[in-house]
Design a protein that fits this description.
Number of helices: 12
Shape: globular
Number of strands: 14
Strand order of the largest sheet: 3-2-1-4-5-6
CATH topology of the largest domain: L-2-Hydroxyisocaproate Dehydrogenase, Chain A, domain 2
Structural class: alpha/beta
Bound molecules: nicotinamide-adenine-dinucleotide
Length: 362
């Protein structure tokens, strides 16, 4: 009997598996061979190098994310893919030249065969927003690009996590989940991780407090219908309104409105001034990868297909989720007041309509 255990390169690490001692593999009498065979099947299915990342799309967002990941020390190998091969090669070289100041890793331009064993594949390929263009305006162009990329991944025996970053991220997360056929816990989008970081940053500035002590979420669409979940917002356990009073801010309704608008318009403002946004999203990608690689089980507002939370079904949008080595472990049932619930459902309806329109035309 051939045991596929022997085919696995010894330096690789795998999900959900232990490398069993050799004498156990051949101890047929005890029945262990059978159990090893079962584990081996899992091994072959999930042939993943946990220290390997791939980035598809090496424009502003892809290259900034590659740079952030190179500095993170999370990965020992990173492959860059772009429709423009020269661009991927140039970025790989440029980023590699920073390695003597970071941690050793291999960074190279490649193609789809190189990503079969990647632990995380980050898809940033797609057109960026033009000044004045909404994320949803991008939908047709980028769904078409995903129609080329995702089937290439689906052809591989891919056992890792697919992290969607290209916009409109919620629609593309849904598209990627459907086209790839991968389990839903392993296909999710950066969603409102960036918007939530913007909210924390602005609140931190407003209150004169470390933004890491601010606990608040932007949920729903990464885009115009997103909602700030104010009712659960707090600063280190102190309800937000109480903390605002303590810091001398009393006009809560106006402040909440202004801050939520500022978060929502951040991308438009930055694109107006410098044509693209990429550093904030690059740090968001790094944070999500950290939760996966270090199995942190962090609660992050990633975009994923919903199954019933607040009556929302069959649409990808951001809800807090526990993120660890297997991707999404569970959606976290955050408390929302009636107005927030209604706004979230409206956000889901808007996205569902876009998905219907897009898929019916394609
Ligand atoms: N989720 C977020 O929070 C967030 C934040 C910022 C930008 N974005 C999105 O990220 C995407 C990329 O933005 P950008 O500024 O890097 O754009 P960009 O134009 O600079 O880069 C896009 C890259 O994708 C490549 N590409 C296009 N089609 C491809 C294909 N089929 N295969 C491989 N590569 C392909 C292009 O050659 C280009 O290098 C956009 O959709 C943008 O809206 C998302």
């Amino acid at each position: 009997m051939v045991c596929s255990f022997t085919k696995i390169p010894p330096f690789y690490s795998y999900y959900n598996m232990k490398l069993l001692p050799v004498q156990q593999i051949f101890s047929e009498k005890s029945g262990i061979l059978e159990s090893v065979k079962k584990e081996s099947e899992v091994m072959v299915m999930k042939n993943v190098n946990i220290r390997k990342a791939a980035i598809i799309g090496c424009g502003f967002v892809g290259s900034a994310s590659a740079f952030a990941l190179m500095q993170s020390g999370l990965f020992s190998e990173m492959v860059l893919i772009d429709a423009d091969r020269q661009k991927a090669e140039g970025e790989a070289l440029d980023i590699s030249h920073g390695l003597p100041f970071a941690k050793p890793m291999q960074i190279y331009a490649g193609d789809y065969d190189d990503i079969a064993d990647a632990n995380v594949v980050i898809v940033t390929a797609g057109a960026g927003q033009k000044p004045g263009e909404t994320r949803l305006d991008l939908v047709k162009k980028n769904v078409a690009i995903f129609g080329k990329i995702i089937p290439e991944i689906a052809k591989l025996d891919f056992g890792g996590i697919l992290l969607v970053v290209a916009n409109p991220v919620d629609v593309l997360t849904y598209t990627a989940a459907k086209l790839s056929g991968l389990p839903e816990n392993r296909v999710f989008g950066s969603g409102t991780v960036l918007d939530t970081a913007r909210l924390k940053y602005i609140l931190g500035e407003h209150l004169g407090v470390d933004s890491r002590s601010v606990h608040a979420f932007i949920l729903g669409e990464h885009g115009d219908s997103e909602i700030a979940a104010w009712s659960s917002a707090n600063v280190s356990g102190i309800p937000l309104h109480d903390f605002c009073e303590m810091r001398g801010h009393h006009d809560h309704v106006q402040a909440m409105h202004d801050i939520a608008e500022s978060v929502k318009n951040s991308a438009y403002d930055i694109i107006e001034k410098k044509k693209a946004t990429y550093y904030g999203i690059a740090m968001s990608v790094r944070r999500i990868c950290e939760a996966i690689i270090l199995d942190q089980k962090s609660v992050l507002p990633v975009s994923h297909i919903q199954h019933g939370a607040f009556g929302i079904e069959g649409v990808a949008l951001s809800m807090p989720a526990i993120v660890g080595k297997d991707g999404i472990e569970a959606t976290v049932p955050i408390g929302l007041n009636d107005a927030e619930k209604a706004a979230l459902q409206k956000s889901a309806d808007a996205l569902r309509q876009v998905i219907r329109d897009t898929l019916s035309e394609s």
